[in-house]
Design goal:
Length: about 600
């Protein structure tokens, strides 16, 4: 019979410690510390308390905890002795089926890792789903983490120990994160669609209206119709996938929610997509319960947010706010295909785009769940964070033009080298972005077109991405960087072209909606952590039309994103689904109590 939280809260410290003994083998101090903080408000609260105790245990105890873990190499050995809780874990990951070569590689990696860090690598072999990493994933993780700094690795080992404890605790309480598993499965399925050139390398790239992009749209629409019970599903004139789950009356106001399904090149599986799949799984639960709320739920998979194929970001959400810029239609992609042609080939009706603008009076507001795409939630061991504001950003693409010349015969003093000028600008942008808090400046693209090893670069293309928590901070940084570009080119006798491709204002969360997220997270028994978003999101576009607020979900691998290492655990996705469900029911209660359908602020 699975253990219950009530039993854990009511039992004597001795009895409870016996129940939880194997979670953090063999470090009873973690459980003792946690039990002293009873009552546990929820399973998530218990997990957080244990991770918090480990986090604040001091380096000696942390090192002892890591050093006490069974070595992966040892686990890979057949017949290795494991504790009762951990015995099945190596098997789950297939570690006990290692080939001799794999075993030798793991043992070599372990020796190198121990020699470098002075403790064994700890990796939660059951992985983000609890069902087990593959042997190749384990070896790849081992190799990657060998390159990390020591301090980072100690914390990463501790986070993996927490994850192992979390999975063991789920087992003890008979808990399976069903909704988290469903979102995980959907995300893996969507990730099977990638553009050919990238798919061949095992990379995920889905840019606007590519075949992979259209396949993802079809998949989302199918699941909305066939699995989740949406009443209406369509793919609109810009390729957004729109699912509507009506309220108790069809003309009831709607909550708008969703995120984007396009990706950056060689991106991750959860950026954007998590925010579509989360409300889909919540609507599926409502549908299964035959439940209608006093408002409708409109879930949108936005077709384009990343601006990868065309220089048109927030195209999908911008169409809903009436900001689709018709000039974008003439933009050409790297192969010379205009957006208009791409839309026509995809069967989209360009003339219908203006009709997509939403009437704000018909909506209650917009909410978005999204992976954090950063390290903060990992550093405080929290699965969920409340977004207070989305940073404003401005983007440019530019070219510095000098004179191509012979690398061997052109004296250093008489060159008009475009690449060294771009390098100066890149370093200036880094210095300026670092000079004040809450500002970031990035040169993400730097290219000498048709460059040659023996030619002084006559041209260098570059991009600029400048963001800040306020528009003033953003604009001041942008002004300085552009002024520096002028100075560099004057001094070097070069000239430049610069085009602003995006400018979006900082978007503070609507207080009432932020409060609903806070209430939802509090109801899960978790502490509230408020934080700004350094990444841009569709919510900042909808911000121009209606009140919005976001929920962040912790990412694995220290929250890395825009990278194939992007990952989320099923447990954290379960908590996000629980939080969104709670917000939906909160809103329903508010409306029922008001017994009218006002537009909450
Ligand atoms: O760049 C961003 O912040 C987002 O991922 N488009
Ligand atoms: Mn992104
Ligand atoms: Mn995103």
């Amino acid at each position: 019979m699975p253990l219950t939280l009530e039993q854990l809260n009511a039992a004597s410290a001795l009895e409870a410690a016996a129940w939880l003994g194997g979670l953090y083998e063999p470090s009873p101090w973690v459980i003792e510390g946690a039990l002293a903080r009873r009552p546990f408000l929820s399973l998530a609260h218990l997990k957080y308390v244990m991770a918090d105790i480990v986090r604040h245990a001091g380096r000696d105890r942390q090192l002892a905890l890591v050093r006490a873990q069974p070595e992966l190499a040892g686990q890979a050995m057949v017949g290795n002795t494991q504790t009762p809780e951990s015995g099945h874990e190596p098997d789950q990951a297939g570690l006990t089926q290692c080939t001799a070569a794999e075993l030798a590689k793991i043992q070599r990696l372990n020796a190198d890792y121990n020699a470098k860090f002075g403790f064994p690598l700890v990796l939660a072999a059951p992985g983000p789903t609890g069902l087990g990493l593959t042997r190749s994933e384990i070896i790849a993780t081992f190799e990657r983490r060998l390159d990390n700094p020591a301090d980072f690795e100690l914390l990463e080992c501790l986070r993996n120990i927490d994850r192992i404890a979390e999975i063991r605790l789920n087992d003890k309480l008979g808990v399976t994160p069903e909704l988290g598993n469903q979102v995980w499965d959907w995300a893996q399925r969507l990730a099977t669609h990638s553009e050919a050139a990238y798919a061949d390398r095992g990379e995920l790239t889905v840019t606007y209206l590519s075949d992979a992009h259209r396949a993802v749209a079809q998949r989302l629409a199918h699941w909305m119709r066939a699995d989740c019970g949406f009443d209406e599903v369509e793919i609109d004139a810009v390729g957004n996938v729109v699912g509507i789950y009506h309220g108790s009356t069809r003309d009831a106001k709607r909550l708008l929610t969703g995120s984007h399904y396009d990706t950056v090149r060689n991106g991750g599986k959860y950026d954007g997509r998590l925010g579509i799949l989360m409300p889909m799984v919540c609507v599926r639960e409502l549908h299964r319960q035959g439940r209608r709320l006093p408002y409708g739920i409109e879930v949108v998979g936005f077709a384009e947010e990343e601006g990868q194929r065309y220089r048109a970001v927030f195209l999908g959400s911008g169409a809903l706010t009436g900001h689709f810029n018709a000039d974008w239609l003439a933009q050409q992609d790297a192969d010379g295909v205009t957006m208009r042609e791409a839309m026509t080939r995809a069967g989209l009706c360009v003339d219908d785009i203006p009709k997509l603008r939403r009437d704000a009076s018909k909506y209650l507001g917009f909410v978005e769940t999204h992976i954090e795409q950063g390290p903060v939630l990992n550093e405080i061991d929290l699965p969920l964070g409340i977004v207070t504001s989305i940073n404003g950003s401005v983007r440019y693409i530019g070219s510095i033009i000098g004179m191509a010349s012979h690398a061997g015969t052109t004296p250093m003093g008489s060159r008009r080298d475009a690449a060294t000028a771009a390098a100066e600008l890149t370093l200036y942008a880094e210095r300026r972005g670092s000079s004040v808090p809450n500002v970031v400046a990035t040169v993400g693209m730097l290219e000498v077109p048709s460059g040659s090893i023996n030619v002084v670069p006559g041209r260098c293309n570059f991009s600029l991405d400048i963001r800040a928590t306020s528009d003033d901070l953003r604009d001041s940084c942008a002004t300085d960087v552009c002024a520096e570009l002028v100075r560099i080119c004057e001094r070097r006798g070069l000239h430049f072209k610069l085009e602003e491709t995006m400018r979006v204002a900082a978007a503070p969360s609507a207080p009432a909606w932020q409060r609903r997220w806070e209430q939802a997270v509090h109801a899960l028994g978790l502490p509230i952590h408020r934080m700004p978003s350094g990444a841009g999101h569709d919510a900042m576009k909808l911000h121009e039309l209606m009140p919005q607020a976001m929920l962040f979900v912790r990412g694995q691998n220290a929250g890395i994103s825009h990278n194939p290492l992007e990952s989320v655990t099923n447990d954290d996705m379960q908590l996000a689904a629980d939080a969104l469900s709670n917000l939906l029911l909160q809103l329903a209660t508010e409306l029922q109590q008001a017994s009218i359908s006002p537009a909450p602020d």
